[in-house]
Amino acid sequence: MQTNTTTMKKASGINASHVGLVLLKMRTFIALFAIAGFFAFTVDGFLAPASLIIMIKHISINALLALGITFVIITAGIDLSIGAILGFCGMVAGYLISQGIVLPMFGIAIFPSVWLIVPLVLVVGGLIGAANGFIITRFNVAPFICTLGTMYIIRGAALLVSGGETFPGLQGNPELGNTGFDLIGSGSLFGVPFTIWLMFIVAGIIAYIARKLPFGRHVYAIGDNERAAELSGIKVNNVKIWVYTIAGLCAALAGIVVTSQLVASHPSTGNAFEMNAIAAVVLGGTSLAGGRGTISGTLIGAFVIGILADGLVMMGVSEFWQMVIKGIVIIVAVVIDQMQSKMQYKAAISSQANNE
Q1: Do 281 and 215 share a domain, yes or no?
Q2: Of 249, 271, 293, at which residue does a domain stop?
Q3: In angstroms, rounded to a whole number, what is the distance separating the alpha carbons of residues 299 and 285?
Q4: pLDDT of residue 210
Q5: Do the beta carbons of residue 256 and residue 118 sit within 8 Å?
Q6: What is the predicted pLDDT for the residue at 8?
Q7: What is the pLDDT at residue 353?
Q8: How far apart are CA 304 and CA 345, in angstroms?
Q9: Residue 21: inside a domain, yes or no?
Q10: Residue 255 maps to a domain
Q11: Helices marked H in the chain
Q12: Burial annotation 288-311 (CB, 10 A radius, 16+ → b, else e)
């Protein structure tokens, strides 16, 4: 009888632990519905179609950045330079549209079309990301230090491009054949803005890479145990360079979108955007210790951060309090992540003990 009672208590404890673990894994969904529900009842017009479209357009910027660094964080890395890459790539786009490619030896300036500007800017972002990955792997520099240094370098470079000035009026000139850049941020397809399409397309591509391609499995393996991944034949350094390259590409794409929406580029654009992106990734369930995370979780995390930010603005909450609340959200997300890790470890131990 005593044995049965003990067994029942153990089973009850395991079930409670399992329920708690499931709730922790679903925390992003719960947070999303709780925050959206709160603002729906407290803010007039929060769920109006026009408001939702504007809100999702804002979310798409942070989502692109967050999606880009999800692989980085899964490998137990970090990238603090993505906000600076966003701003710098926006300046490059603005320079190409307003100044063109100057050829002093011929005394002319070539004004490329938008179809050429976009891939050029993406290449610039990708190269900066690749440089981060190369420095981190080749010289064994901590990702935090490397990308912090890169952030300052790129911020300075963005200021040098225009001498600290803004490139305004980036609609282009029909006579130069470089019009249409503003349509990226203001255009729509089937009534849905291009920026929202871009967000979901990028999310779909990265999710496919994570789930279906060997590269995705290698990313998770490196984050789980880098030494074991290396011994199994995975080219760890190459994978790391590529994850930082992807982060740079996504940051460049976000820079194009922001610049297009503003129809102007400024060196300070993207300042502190990396913090919101990291918060979205962590809130979405990606572990800062590496080895765990999902693209869908990151996307939902971006929605949580975006809805929280826009909802607070619509409520008239001070910008200072918004910063405090975002900071609290980041800390809580990390604490919950640690709780999930401990509960998963205990559940694994309990499962092993029961099997024995």
Answers
A1: no
A2: 271
A3: 11
A4: 96
A5: yes
A6: 47
A7: 64
A8: 27
A9: no
A10: yes
A11: 2-25, 27-42, 49-74, 82-98, 114-138, 143-162, 183-186, 194-212, 214-224, 226-231, 236-262, 273-283, 295-315, 319-355
A12: bebbbbbbebbbbbbbbbbbbbbb
| Backbone φ, ψ for residue 148 (5° rounding) | -65, -45
The answer to whether residues 322 and 313 touch, using CB atoms and an 8 Å cutoff, is yes
Report the alpha-carbon distance of residue 39 to residue 244 in Å, rounded: 36
**30 part of a folded domain:** no
Is the same domain home to 257 and 278?
A: no
Q: 166 and 92 in one domain? A: yes
Q: Which bin fits 169, alpha (ψ -120 to 50), beta or left (φ > 0)?
A: left
Looking at residue 343, its pLDDT comes to 73
- Do 171 and 290 fall within a single domain? no
3-state secondary structure of 117: helix
Beta bridge partners of 108: 103
**What pLDDT score was predicted for residue 356?**
60
Give the model's pLDDT for residue 351.
65
- Residue 46 sits at φ, ψ, to 5 deg, of -65, -35
Q: By the 8 A CB rule, do 215 and 243 touch? A: no
Contact 281, 250 (CB under 8 A): no
Q: Which residue segment(s) compose the domain that 146 sits in? A: 68-271
- For residue 247, what are its two tokens? 């982060």
Residue where the block lists tokens 């609609």: 171
Residue 108: inside a domain: yes
Which two three-digit tokens encode residue 89? 């790539």
Does 233 lie in the same domain as 177? yes
Domain end, chosen from 224, 254, 271, is at 271
Whether residues 172 and 296 fall in one domain = no
Same domain, 251 and 329: no
Residues of the chain where predicted confidence (pLDDT) is lower than 50: 6, 8-13
Please give the distance of CA 267 from its chain centroid, rounded to a whole number.
20
Residues 95 and 223 in one domain: yes
User: How many domains does the chain contain in total?
Assistant: 2
* Residue 25 exposure: Cα atoms within 13 Å on the Cβ side: 11
